Amino acid sequence: MAPRKAPDAGRRSDRSRRAIYDAALALVGENGYRRTTIEGIAARAGVGKQTIYRWWPSKAAVLMEAFLDMAARAAGQTAPEGDEDADSRNGGEYGIPDTGDLAADLKLVLRATVDELNDPLMEAPTRALTAEGIVDAALGAEFVEKLLDPQLALYVTRLRAAQEAGHLRADADPRTALELLIAPLTHRWLLRTLPLTHAYADTIVDYALGGLAPRP
Amino acid sequence: MAPRKAPDAGRRSDRSRRAIYDAALALVGENGYRRTTIEGIAARAGVGKQTIYRWWPSKAAVLMEAFLDMAARAAGQTAPEGDEDADSRNGGEYGIPDTGDLAADLKLVLRATVDELNDPLMEAPTRALTAEGIVDAALGAEFVEKLLDPQLALYVTRLRAAQEAGHLRADADPRTALELLIAPLTHRWLLRTLPLTHAYADTIVDYALGGLAPRP
Amino acid sequence: MAPRKAPDAGRRSDRSRRAIYDAALALVGENGYRRTTIEGIAARAGVGKQTIYRWWPSKAAVLMEAFLDMAARAAGQTAPEGDEDADSRNGGEYGIPDTGDLAADLKLVLRATVDELNDPLMEAPTRALTAEGIVDAALGAEFVEKLLDPQLALYVTRLRAAQEAGHLRADADPRTALELLIAPLTHRWLLRTLPLTHAYADTIVDYALGGLAPRP
Amino acid sequence: MAPRKAPDAGRRSDRSRRAIYDAALALVGENGYRRTTIEGIAARAGVGKQTIYRWWPSKAAVLMEAFLDMAARAAGQTAPEGDEDADSRNGGEYGIPDTGDLAADLKLVLRATVDELNDPLMEAPTRALTAEGIVDAALGAEFVEKLLDPQLALYVTRLRAAQEAGHLRADADPRTALELLIAPLTHRWLLRTLPLTHAYADTIVDYALGGLAPRP
DNA sequence: GCGTAACCGAGACGGTACGTCCAGTCTTTGA
DNA sequence: TCAAAGACTGGACGTACCGTCTCGGTTACGC
């Protein structure tokens, strides 16, 4: 193996990294992912192309990190101070509320997800990243591990709590249950089959929980 | 506008069209969609580049048609003769069986879907097409209209029959119900979160129908 | 061997070739050879880079052809009509006059050579080409074959005539004699040791012919 | 102007300088001048790039010094001890012998020059340096001043001695005479028109001296 | 003998040009 | 009279070096 000696991360320029994130997100938002080029990102960031190639293996990887950074920052802004580490670890979510009413709590969260997916600012980069991950297994794995799984874990936690409280069948698999809730929203959003609304989110919760309620 | 005279479809060479389909599918299968080029398809098909540009607006459009053609052929092979038109209109499916046992019928069909998604031969082009449609709205619309919707319509038909037979809540929306069944499979397959198995398909049917059964 | 199929010269665009010659000569004249880039030539010529790479193996080769073309055109302009082929074959020279006075004839021609070498318009590309040929043997061979040898052949012809006329020692080798005349001029010009003047040319002729005159 | 303080030559690392010379000569010999890079020299010499940029203005300047150093060392090896300064000042030559037979003495020296030019070890760097000097006037001047002129001066000395001894026409200009001897060899070597042999050197001496002999 | 100022190896940085690949258009040519 | 073949402009790719800068570390001079 010729392991093409890794660059010294200690000397990395933070200024450049930030500028690259900003440029990447801006360009993808403006022109779409396909028309965004590494040369374009470098130019917009005022950075040499090599500085991108030194630290990222692909355009998709740049966007992924930029995206994660954006999420972490967004979280950091609203988070209580001194708790930044926790935020960045779980993708910027703070957990699903537990008011005792599982359906209401899920509707709240899923409606927020609907709004997020419909936010035109997030749409372009999120679609780009997802599509890239569908085709590129390695990138997809990273996407799932760093972005998706942390969010899904919150549902598992909430659903387990519901099971313990007797609001959910004890023999239901939380992971599968979660997919029953999330997948339909993702499906509509990704494939643009039908509009993605709050009402749809509510219906999904109702239908899904119907089959998961404890036996009478 | 200079209305650049449309090509005369009557004179189109069938031989070339077929060769282009074959080359496109073969190359996407071998090298992936990203590394497949129009020049490469033309060369492999023994066709001038212009012959591709004359009839299709993009690489994705070529692949889409090649894909539809493949589906139509696959259907034509097993279909009763003299019924090819009907097949190609519904994506090659012949409808969901109705044995009176809704859960069993759905499991049968969804298990077949799982097998199809796990078929390595279909995987590359299907993923490519889906990913492209996620990013390119026009292509996505075509994908949904020509490939997805015809298949989903079969579920709607079956579910409506179930409602009439009293096996499904009368106030349930079949379209939403269908998404509850299909979306989780699609989710696992597209995002590669967890393995996609027959057992998973069965569980989804059980959980989903649980909430859609008629009230006792 | 993978002989990277040669392009079809019959379809070559004359317009592009000419534009490339012009751009190459202009840029070398303006910025020098080192600062002239293939990208720059392509941009100035309004031509894709690939059109250069398709037809020439290197920047030096482009310049060489541009140079030969310039010489051929310059010759064609002053030459009697209907004789263009002959001109381009001997580098644009029409032969060394033969007035019967060898020394006078040589001085005439060498003074003209001095003027040509001192012409600032020719200087940059000629130096560039020569320097490149010194380092790149293949290019040097082409330079010698296409530009230098045809000119030197004229001297050989004139010197042989002088031998036949008894104005030059019969046992003198014309090729060596020619080098005795030409090399000192080239030496001064290439290495810029001392100024290159008409007087110097005259002196060289006198000194050189002194040793080559027929024995009394 | 910001007079960017000159580096302190007193602290200069001799070890690095030597390593850079060695690396430069080795790389030019192995890969040719064009493919030799400053980064490559630095890497091979185990030296930071800045150490090169601190002390030399260009790749050509490095090679020039390396070349001069090599000449000085080569001279130092065979020179009588305690006389190193004199050697390095005249390019490593010890003067042209004066046996009283001018032609013989010149043939001896020119044959040695032929051998040196044909020495494959010297060839690459010498050609590179010469070619560079042809295009870059400043470097060319340095080349002439430091390498060429000291050697040519030896010829002038010997030729003047010949004049005083009555072996050469009194009105002949030694500088021009020298060029008549040297230039043809240089010409063949630089332009690779014809092979450069001892016989050729002899012929040149004969032809040139023929015209410079004292009038009978 | 002790800062401190310079050199040093190392290598990241903003850039420029390289030579290649392919997109999409236009032109020629042979069947 | 097509369509194959393929040359064309254009532009991004990923690489190689350029010349500058900054980082620790290591001399070696001057106080």
From TrEMBL, chains A, B, C, D:
Annotated protein name in UniProt: TetR/AcrR family transcriptional regulator
Xref: PANTHER family: HTH-TYPE TRANSCRIPTIONAL REGULATOR RUTR (PTHR30055), TETR-FAMILY TRANSCRIPTIONAL REGULATOR (PTHR30055:SF148)
Keywords assigned: DNA-binding, Transcription, Transcription regulation
Highest taxon above the source species: Bacteria
DNA-binding region: 37-56
One Pfam family of this chain: TetR_N
PROSITE patterns with a match to the protein in the record: HTH_TETR_2
Disordered: region residues: 75-95
HTH tetR-type domain: residues covered: 14-74
DNA-binding keyword on record: yes
Native species: Streptomyces rhizosphaericola
